[in-house]
Amino acid sequence: MIKCHLSRIMGERKLKIVDVARDTGINRGTVTRLYHETASRVELEVVAELCRYFDCQVGELFEYVPLSKRSE
């Protein structure tokens, strides 16, 4: 499974979903789904814009977690 760290990053910077959506131009629903980790897919342009906005690498935003670790 892919874990999205958007909520942690936003929390550290005290940002709200509406702030990120407004500042990046990303649809608020998309930001919400990523924040709550309910997104099943994400456009590469969205990933690129989030990385630009947060000045981070893709690996800081997303993490691969093997299914066996998820149940531990």
Quick rundown:
The chain is mostly helical and 72 residues long.
What does this structure look like?
- The protein has 72 residues and is mainly alpha-helical.
- The chain has one domain: 434 Repressor (Amino-terminal Domain) (Orthogonal Bundle).
- 58% of the residues lie in helices and 8% in strands.
- It starts with a strand and ends with a helix.
- It comes from Halomonas cibimaris.
- InterPro entries: Cro/C1-type_HTH, Lambda_DNA-bd_dom_sf.
- This is HTH cro/C1-type domain-containing protein.
Q: Radius of gyration, rounded?
A: 12 Å
| Terminal CA distance | 14 Å
Count of β-strands: 2
Instruction: Give the overall silhouette.
Output: globular
- Please provide the ordered H/E string of secondary-structure elements: EHHHHHEH
How many independent structural domains?
A: 1
Distinct helical segment count: 6
- Which structural class matches the secondary elements? mainly alpha
Let me know the average pLDDT.
Answer: 94
CATH topology: 434 Repressor (Amino-terminal Domain)
User: What is the class in the CATH system?
Assistant: Mainly Alpha
Please give the CATH architecture: Orthogonal Bundle
How helical, in percent, are the residues?
A: 55-70%
Strand order of the largest sheet: 1-2
Largest sheet: 2 strands, antiparallel
Q: Report strand %.
A: 5-15%
User: Low-confidence segments, ≥5 residues, pLDDT <50?
Assistant: none
CATH homologous superfamily? lambda repressor-like DNA-binding domains
